[in-house]
Design goal:
Elements: H1 2-28, H2 39-52, E1 61-62, H3 63-72, H4 79-89, E2 97-98, H5 100-108, H6 114-131
Antiparallel strand pairs: 1-2
Length: 146
């Protein structure tokens, strides 16, 4: 039974990824984003980031999924703050989800939506962590002193 659910989940994820790929293709051929540097690699990064969220069956980010993702990042938000974030990304519509199209417009747009800032900040934090050496510091000798 577990195997069945794993296969079904895998199929759903691959269908969602195909759908996101087709949206990426549309963005690549859109003149609005023709000036965007490294658009293809940015779209690929945004797709991976988007798929980290628990997407609903329509492939959208729901309020609770956004809440869990932000909590993982150590940024717990109130219900009202989450609704405001979703509204900001989805252009003020009354829906409680973020579709991939709106997500890309947010990430590629000039406006600094709160969610965009959080996701960009998260990436910067990871880069800094990767650069720091792990383990105990190297032993210093007198010749290392300035």
């Amino acid at each position: 039974l577990d195997n069945f659910f794993n296969r079904a989940f895998g199929l759903l994820k691959s269908q969602q990824e195909e759908k996101l790929n087709s949206i990426n293709e549309a963005f690549l051929s859109d003149d609005t984003y023709a000036e965007e540097e490294e658009l293809a690699s940015k779209l690929e990064q945004f797709k991976k980031k988007y798929m980290e969220f628990d997407l609903n069956d329509k492939g959208e980010i729901e309020l609770m999924s956004l809440k869990r993702m932000l909590e993982k990042l150590g940024l717990a938000k109130t219900h009202l703050e989450l609704k405001k974030m979703i509204s900001e990304v989805s252009g003020g519509s009354s829906k409680d989800t973020i579709c991939y199209d709106d997500f890309l417009k947010m990430m590629l747009g000039k406006r600094n939506a709160i969610l965009k800032l959080i996701l960009m900040f998260e990436g910067k934090g990871k880069e800094e962590q990767e650069q720091k050496p792990s383990g105990p510091p190297c032993r210093k000798t007198f010749s290392d002193l300035p």
